[in-house]
Design a protein that fits this description.
By secondary structure, the protein is an alpha/beta fold. It contains 8 helices and 7 strands. It is globular and about 55 Å long. Bound molecules: nicotinamide-adenine-dinucleotide.
């Protein structure tokens, strides 16, 4: 389906972004990876995608807090592959603290990476998509794009902002063959969430396994983590012809979290 098309996935060296990159590659897309990590591990991810799916894969180390590096990453993708057709804004970080203790630099970093970087990628990618009359923009928001939790003021603000950004971009590109949607996962067991479970276990003195079950049951009627691969499959569907009129929406994949 995506053969000959190019997908750029921010934050795809780990977790959900990695799974989305592999799902889009399996569907035929060439891939531009992005994110931080060990050089050798990243090269293994890149080479693995080429070998497993017979597509081209490249890597950009652009820092999502740096607008100039983001613009350069989009330009490089278009130059390297000829087009940028699917943009997945996935890079994200978390910090947990009450607002009065929330470090200012953590607020700035979360807003930059989890929200502003999507403005910068979309701003740079939309002209090419409009020109080619085809594009798919997928913003990885969160259940926290729709509802709040304590101690996550920056994350919840950024993710609510990302859902708003999604709606505006959808309206502005509605008649240009471009769709823009948000995916709102509940708990997905990735390094980002594992850190939160480990911190809870340390604070309570309980086991990591018990804290994982508690974390799930506090928020989700369904006590299961969503698999990164399931989010990859949803992203592939949003790129399909069947999804061509799906735009401006936020799709929950959250074990019933926001149904309550
Ligand atoms: P992760 O920590 O496994 O991956 C985050 C990725 O972002 C990594 O590749 C990392 O290198 C990259 N990244 C971080 N800072 C960056 C920067 N400055 N520049 C470029 N790349 C940077 O996390 P994950 O759980 O896979 O999260 C991916 C996205 O999904 C995030 O936006 C997160 O908010 C969202 N999300 C996660 C969950 C969950 O339960 N894990 C739930 C809802 C939403």
């Amino acid at each position: 389906m995506l053969k000959g098309k190019t997908a750029l996935i921010t934050g795809s060296t780990s977790g959900i972004g990695f799974a989305i990159a592999r799902a889009l590659a399996q569907d035929g897309a060439n891939i531009m990876l992005n994110g931080f990590g060990d050089k050798t591990a990243i090269e293994q991810i890149r080479a693995g995608i080429e070998k497993d799916f017979g597509v081209k894969a490249r890597y950009s180390g652009a820092d999502m807090t740096k607008p100039a590096e983001i613009a350069d990453m989009v330009r490089t993708t278009e130059k390297e592959f000829g087009t940028l057709d699917v943009l997945v804004n996935n890079a994200g970080i978390q910090h947990v603290a009450n607002i009065e203790d929330f470090p200012i630099e953590k607020w700035d970093a979360i807003i930059a990476i989890n929200l502003s970087s999507s403005f910068h990628t979309i701003r740079a990618a939309v002209p090419g998509m409009k020109k080619r009359n085809w594009g798919r923009i997928i913003n990885i928001a969160s259940a926290h794009g729709l509802v709040a939790s304590t101690q996550k003021v920056a994350y919840v603000s950024a993710k609510h902002g990302l859902v708003g950004l999604t709606k505006v971009v959808a309206m502005e590109t509605a008649n240009a063959g471009v769709t823009c949607n948000a995916i709102c996962p509940g708990w997905v067991l990735t390094p980002l969430v594992q850190q939160q479970i480990d911190a809870r276990a340390k604070a309570s003195g309980g086991s990591v396994k018990d804290e994982a079950i508690k974390l799930l049951s506090e928020k989700q009627p369904m006590h299961e983590f969503t698999k990164p691969e399931s989010i990859g499959a949803l992203a592939v569907f949003l790129c399909s012809d069947a999804a061509e009129t799906m735009t401006g929406s936020a799709y929950s994949i959250d074990g019933g979290w926001v149904a309550q």
